[in-house]
Design a protein that fits this description.
By secondary structure, the chain is mainly alpha-helical. The protein has a domain of about 130 residues: Heat Shock Protein 90 (2-Layer Sandwich), CATH 3.30.565. A five-stranded mixed sheet has the order 1-2-3-5-4, covered by helices on one side. α8 runs antiparallel to α9 and α9 packs antiparallel against α10. It is rod-shaped. The two termini are about 30 Å apart.
Length: about 650
């Protein structure tokens, strides 16, 4: 079915005008959409590259792969210089801090953590700021700057609590408990540990839970409440498959359980538990905690008067303490060795202890001062960075603006080119349509002339011949009267052929039905398809007239020359053309030798006037297929006769 609306109202010209107006009206939005699409595609690849690089750096740190971490840090710095992405600058400082942690240079780590934190502040990245403050607090705690650590942890809460970062809030409160213990704030410490447990219930992270339970047990152990401490350590050890899943936390809890039992006087399984802890820590290469285990073993063997074994473990504790720069265990090891030896050797260990203690005290003071200096300098730089940030934002805005202008310029060029093409297409189609309309008007004029000639032949010439015919009959000129009557019939037939078909009073559909009825008989059957399926009012009268004449000429040829007994006529209207197909079962003819008759020649001329296409396929004894295609919008086609 052809949609009547498209044939009646939506002409090609209207479609072009609507398209043109739509493009002009939405020109800005088209540019905005195109530029946004270009930028989003570019950014998608960049973000993926950035995030992969950051995750690789974190993994390298946890794997303690310093070489890989150094390489990734350089790549982060290179990408930052390429993109000016401040997130990468913050990560560059973060990774520099992680490098310093792996090399035990805590003053450098503190410095870079501060720089990373300040960049994240400028980015309003609360999570990153809170995490860096937590790292700073842990460094301060290790340097015995407990007050500074407490300040950093409380500041971290100001960034993490508004975003409810459960996992890091748990860690902050756990560390606040440790620091409060060192500051002799026992009630506060207990409150912080319980707060950490509250967040752990939400977070459900087993490692965090085990650390908090261990710290609570150690809290009661330090108060001499060994039974309560033992119950907490056992509670942690009762976790499902803790030894296989969390060997480091298992060793920590087991060691503290053994120590609590030892302090309580229950020594049956203590040695076995210490040796198990020792085996796990050696297997995990947990060197920083091995010094603690050896000190506990030294205490155990000293208590049962096995001095040689106590000396061995005290020396091992000193070795691992020096290796990991665990100053607390270093001092404890020297005290143990001094107590386990005599004479000059004991005095030597004691002198080393005093010198180290003084040195550490001085270093701690120096480190605290360095931390304070770093905080002051980074605070000062933060103000300077605010100014630099504003300038950088202006530069970034200019870069983005110029990039957008360049992209928009290209888009404008492309769209202008498209508009130019549309305009040319519109012009040529408009011109073709006007030419086609003019051609239709000329055909109408010729049809009008034919009508006038037909009327004159019918009314005047045929009338005069009729009068003359009667006179000849009265004069007994019978032969002359018969010849004149034949001339009169020829004139009459000619007038009918020249007469123009009108569709005002009788519709095209009815005209075709009448035509078929005039020629139809039992020996000459005519079948029509598609006539009822279309709105013929939407088709120009010149085209309908041509279709009617083509059908009439074909029917006459089928009956007179082809000796056909059956004719099928197919009508169809498409988006751009009207098609008429006629098939007969006549005798056919050889298209390579046969010439067109005058009727067929006249038909082809009419078809050519409307830029149509005539195709005739026939073979002797196989009938004839005639195809006529008339364009609705004036496209020119090639006529064929085959």
């Amino acid at each position: 079915m052809v949609h009547n609306i498209s044939l009646k109202t939506i002409t090609f010209e209207k479609v072009m005008v609507l398209s043109y107006n739509y493009i002009i009206k939405n020109f800005f939005y088209i540019i905005l959409f195109c530029s946004s699409f270009v930028f989003s595609q570019e950014n998608k690849g960049y973000f993926s590259r950035r995030d992969t690089l950051i995750e690789s750096g974190r993994k390298a740190f946890f794997d303690k792969n310093l070489t890989l971490l150094n390489t990734i840090t350089l790549q982060v710095d290179s990408l930052y210089k390429e993109s000016n992405d401040s997130i990468l600058l913050a990560k560059f400082y973060h990774f520099k801090a992680l490098q310093s942690k792996l090399t035990y240079t805590n003053d450098s780590a503190f410095y870079y953590y501060h720089l990373s934190k300040d960049v994240s502040k400028q980015l309003n990245d609360s999570l990153a700021v809170g995490r860096r403050l937590l790292s700073l607090a842990i460094l301060q705690k290790e340097a015995k700057d407990f007050l500074g650590s407490e300040i950093s942890l409380i500041e971290a809460l100001q960034y993490l609590e508004p975003i409810n970062s459960v996992i890091y809030l748990e860690s902050v409160y756990n560390n606040l408990g440790i620091v409060s213990e060192e500051l002799k704030q026992q009630n506060e410490a207990l409150s912080y540990y319980n707060k950490a447990l509250t967040y752990n219930k939400i977070n459900r992270k087993n490692t965090g839970y085990l650390y908090i339970i261990n710290n609570l047990g150690f809290f009661y152990q330090s108060k001499g409440q060994y039974k309560k401490a033992i119950s907490l350590f056992k509670k942690g050890l009762s976790k499902d498959s803790i030894k296989e899943k969390y060997p480091i936390q298992y060793a920590l809890l087991l060691e503290n359980l053994a120590a609590s039992n030892f302090l309580l006087g229950k020594k049956e399984n203590v040695l076995k538990q210490y040796n198990e802890v020792l085996s796990i820590r050696e297997g995990e290469k947990d060197f920083s905690q091995l010094s603690t285990t050896h000190i506990n073993l030294a205490d155990y063997y000293k208590n049962i008067n096995q001095t040689n074994k106590a000396l061995f473990h005290a020396n091992e504790a000193l070795k691992y303490a020096k290796q990991t720069q665990n100053n607390k265990r270093w001092l404890e090891s020297l005290v143990k060795l001094s107590g386990l030896t005599t004479g000059e050797q004991s005095k030597q260990y004691l002198d080393e202890y005093i010198a180290l203690s003084d040195s550490l005290f001085q270093n701690e003071r120096t480190l605290k001062n360095q931390f304070a200096k770093i905080r002051y300098e980074t605070g000062k730089k933060e103000k300077e960075n605010t100014v630099l940030k504003t300038e950088n934002e202006k530069k970034q805005a200019e870069i983005v603006y110029h990039k957008q202008q360049k992209t928009i310029g290209w888009l404008l060029f492309v769209l202008s080119f498209l508009l130019f093409g549309v305009s040319i297409l519109f012009y040529f189609n408009r011109k073709r349509k006007l030419l086609y309309q003019a051609q239709l008007e000329r055909i109408q004029a010729r049809e009008h002339e034919r009508k006038q000639i037909a009327k004159s032949l019918h009314d005047e010439v045929a009338g005069d011949l009729r009068l003359l015919h009667r006179k000849l009959e009265k004069s007994n000129l019978v032969d002359e009267a018969k010849r004149l009557d034949a001339v009169k019939e020829n004139v009459r037939n000619l007038s009918h052929q020249l007469s123009s078909i009108s569709f005002k009073k009788v519709s095209f559909r009815d005209q075709i039905i009448n035509l078929v009825s005039d020629y139809y008989d039992l020996n000459f059957k005519i079948k029509v398809n598609g006539l009822q399926n279309h709105d013929w009012l939407a088709v120009d009268n010149s085209i309908k007239r041509l279709l009617y004449l083509s059908a009439r000429e074909s029917i006459q040829n089928c009956k007179k020359h082809a000796k056909a007994s059956k004719v099928t006529i197919n009508f169809s209207v498409h988006k751009k053309y009207v098609h008429l197909g006629i098939i007969d079962d006549g005798i056919g003819f050889d298209t390579t030798t046969s010439k067109k008759g005058i009727g067929l020649q006249n038909l082809q001329e009419r078809i050519e006037e409307l830029n149509g296409m005539l195709t005739i396929n026939s073979e002797v004894g196989k009938g004839t297929q005639t195809s006529i295609q008339i364009p609705l919008n004036g496209w020119t086609n090639k006529n064929t006769f085959s």
